Amino acid sequence: MQPVLDYLKRNQARFVAELCDYLRLPGVSAQEKHKPDLHASAQWLANHCRQAGLVATLRKTEGNPIVIARTPRRRDSRRRQPHFLVYGHYDVQPPDPLELWQSPPFEPRIDGRSLFARGATDNKGQHFAHLKAVEAYLKSGVPLPCDLTFVIEGEEEVGSRHLAKFLKANRAELQCDAVVVSDTGMPDKDHPALTYALRGIIAFEVTIHGPARDLHSGIFGGAVENPAMALSQLLARMRDGKGRVAIPHFYDDVRPLTAYERREFKRLPVAGRDLRRLLGVKRLWGEQGFSAMEQRSARPTFEINGLTSGYQGEGSKTIVPAWARAKITCRLAPGQRPERIRKIVRDYMKKICPPTVRLEMEAGHGAEAYLMPPTGPHARAALAALRMAFHREPVLLREGGSIPIVNEFKKVLGAETLLLGLGLPDDNAHSPNEKFDLDNFENGQRLGAFLWQELSRGEF
Ligand code: BES
Ligand code: ZN
After folding, report:
1. What's the CA gap between 297 and 278, in Å, rounded?
2. Do 115 and 30 meet the contact criterion of CB atoms below 8 Å apart?
3. Which of 53, 378, 413, 459 is deepest in the core (most CB within 10 A)?
4. Closest ligand to the CA of 183
5. Domain 2-198+369-457 belongs to what architecture?
6. What are 334-355's pLDDT values in tens digits?
7. Where do the CATH 3.40.630.10 domains begin and end in the chain?
8. For ligand 1, atom 6, which residue shows the shortest CA distance?
């Protein structure tokens, strides 16, 4: 085992340089113009996996290719070794708004122990740490106590549209004892975490159609409904004064937090004031009766992600716009079914939409929340590995983000996912100036090194 840790220590500078190469590839899955960059990212990653000693292939899908890289299987296969998957994604969020970046998003920059680039923490840096841990085993000649397969996809940030089908079609190859994912966070550098729950999600767009074309607001304004105003009023009715979603039956199936969970939440670092300062808001806001930590990780929401209508250019233009549109996502708590929530949101919006305009609703991606009991042997092994890698006592977390595919790992492969995040609250995932902490990069590699030993101990 020591040679693995020594290898990691010796090679840090090279690993960081390689991660920078990876980060230069702008694989933005939301934007059509980046298709070639997504292919280049997958190709780069597959080549890199080969250099690390893995057997890597690019698998075509109807969308972006999936990189499958496995450890070379032993010849002597009399004793079945455990098999684990490591999942990650090479696609990244759009870097906009560009003007807020202190250095260009696809020109990685190191400042102290922070590596700045789009995709640094979400998710290239995090799965790269696992890759380096496995490289350390393969190159230092220490036998891995298990078989490993990396599944790195290119559509996570747009809802993992094609991966579920791929899992079904390749079930035998991907059959495994558990899945490991580092694509979440930890409360701070002193608290490594095992995340045992994620929120689900539904995405959709609402368009309010008004007049057939933009109209002169002096000539027609006042006699025709303004779609931007109608949409605003509609959206304003989606929540009440207590910070709750005001759509009837929205909370019907939400599984409540247990008393134990609520106590555990209180013990976590990140007090309200830190959060307020970190986020740059005057005051925090949220559903009454729940702490900020609970609100942002365990309670469902209705969020406007984008709102567009009318003239956005320089100066003033006096029009009644022809349409108004909102991009919306609801985060879901365990118990809420995406398709049911989609229906009750649609029905309610249609019901209260005024007859003076036409409402159109287009469905986007959706996924259930994830909840796994953090008490089994795999979770215990993961907690032990976190303790060894970080020299700190790990915490159990629920997190508010979504990783749609983890439910499919359970349904299709029957495997639980261990969420071992390396991101920090100030890493700026999905925001300008995204970064990855290089200490977490190194500790993440150590985590990989210990994890496979702990998970393969055979008490299962
Ligand atoms: N890494 C995140 C998910 C995440 C972040 C989980 C923080 C927990 C804490 C992932 O890349 C992501 O952003 N997922 C999307 C999924 C969506 C587009 C279907 C999300 O949560 O918005
Ligand atoms: Zn993300």
Report:
1. 17
2. no
3. 378
4. 1
5. 3-Layer(aba) Sandwich (3.40)
6. 999 999 999 999 999 999 999 9
7. 2-198+369-457
8. 401
